[in-house]
Specification:
Elements lengths: L17 H12 L7 H4 L1 H6 L16 E12 L8 E7 L2 E7 L1 H13 L2 E11 L2 E11 L12 E2 L2
Parallel strand pairs: 1-6, 3-5
Antiparallel strand pairs: 1-2, 1-4, 2-3, 4-5
Length: about 160
């Protein structure tokens, strides 16, 4: 190694775009401190009138809303009679979903496989807790351009 010149300058590399940095963070450690993936598409979501999670506390009971987020978890307790409980996360917080069996059956492939969801539904306030009861569920995963995120699900 005596003949090697280690004084060569380090090549200048182009800075990785934020979206790629966040995707790389999620792929390696499951989160990012740089930005939230849903925050990167917030402008598109606003055009679709999708509310950030924090805005749900301003909504009246029974209001129709659109929310979106990464799927954090899916649960189906044995006592739920087929009801699925899900939690989505956007850049502002979490959204609790109560997915009734008929909605689950209608959107099952999307709900089971998507990394992120766009949900149309109705706000329900009960005992200080806010839920969204979905009536329509769309897969938002493609909008996140290859994001690898893992939810904690029932098995």
């Amino acid at each position: 190694f005596r003949e090697l010149d280690d004084a060569e300058p380090t090549p200048a590399l182009a800075e990785m775009p934020m979206e790629q940095q966040v995707n790389a963070d999620y792929e390696t450690v499951g989160l990012s401190l740089k930005a939230h993936p849903v925050g990167l598409i917030r402008a598109d979501l606003e055009r679709l009138q999708v509310l950030p999670a924090t805005r749900l506390k301003e909504m009246e009971d029974k209001t129709q809303v659109r929310v979106a987020g990464l799927v954090l978890m899916r649960q189906q307790p044995s006592t739920s009679k087929g009801t699925i409980f899900m939690t989505l996360e956007d850049e502002t917080g979490t959204v609790n979903l109560v997915v009734w069996p008929r909605v689950w059956e209608r959107f099952r492939p999307i709900v089971r496989g998507a990394t992120a969801l766009l949900v149309h539904g109705k706000v329900e306030r009960a005992a200080g807790v806010i839920h969204v009861m979905p009536t329509k569920i769309e897969d938002l995963s493609r909008s996140l351009r290859g994001l690898t995120a893992r939810s904690r699900d029932f098995h």
